[in-house]
Amino acid sequence: MEWMKTMAMTSGAVTIGTSLRAMTDTLPEDGHVMPAFFIGHGSPMNALEDNEFTRGWKAEMANVRKPAAILCVSAHWLTRGTWVTAMDHPKTIHDFGGFPRELSEAQYTAPGLPELARRVSETVQGTPIGLDQDWGLDHGTWSVLKPVFPKADLPVVQVSIDLSKPGAWHYELAKELSNLRRRGVLILGSGNIVHNLRWMDGQRLDQGFDWALETNELTNRLILNRDHAKLCDYQSLGKSAARAIPTPDHYYPLLYTLALQGPQEDVKIFNDKAVLGSITMTSVRIG
């Protein structure tokens, strides 16, 4: 299930009471640049399972210095305008159905970090960023973080996706967040590059349809070649991509990660596998 939160930017939630100077001690620059990730999150059951994908997430983050905070762009928070969670204690959102009770009862009690939310709101100049007090952490965020950071002791903030905007717009917005990597913030995009639920096939548990594999191979090549312009214009990638990416909600988080790549930074692809015919778990590390 996708959630569309239709909040008007005129609600007054953009009011900012703390200047960036006052936040210097909370998230200081220290000369270290945190890596950035795009995670193919797949089923929310990954929150509870020990499988090849969760092990892949853990392996790639095992050598990452402990973040001061985590900023996540999830495919499951779709809004009018752009918002950032600004509460002290974000709730765990169970935005799915048809799964075991154990998953519906799972909690991820990570604190929020209003100071980071305000920094995001003040830093981004290309569009207003509203401070949200209602959303929380949806499964695009907590189903990834629960296996990797099970103690839930790191502050977590989410940024929403304005689905009305094109890929290049999101890419440019994400560039404005790059300085947060120098302040101990681990930035994650969470979605799936190939994501077509209508074509899911339980007989293809560890396989992909030809069009899914073709799209995965193409996007991998573009990622490794740093051809971000073509990736932003995903609608021009051909017929296979049109079927593999029928809507941009799960695809746009990839662009938020790629936009953070510095001129000399390497990129690594991992968990590069198709499942259920029409979903890829392909994940990307920058830095």
Automatic annotation (TrEMBL):
GO terms for molecular function: ferrous iron binding; oxidoreductase activity, acting on single donors with incorporation of molecular oxygen, incorporation of two atoms of oxygen; zinc ion binding. The keyword Membrane does not apply. InterPro entries: Extradiol_dOase_DODA, Xdiol_dOase_suB. Pfam families: LigB (PF02900). Gene3D superfamilies: LigB-like. Its cofactor is Zn(2+). Residues 50-266 form the Extradiol ring-cleavage dioxygenase class III enzyme subunit B domain. The keyword Ribonucleoprotein does not apply. Keywords: Dioxygenase, Metal-binding, Oxidoreductase, Zinc. CDD domains: 45_DOPA_Dioxygenase. Transmembrane segments: none annotated. NCBIfam families: PRK10628.1. Belongs to the DODA-type extradiol aromatic ring-opening dioxygenase family. This is 4,5-DOPA dioxygenase extradiol.
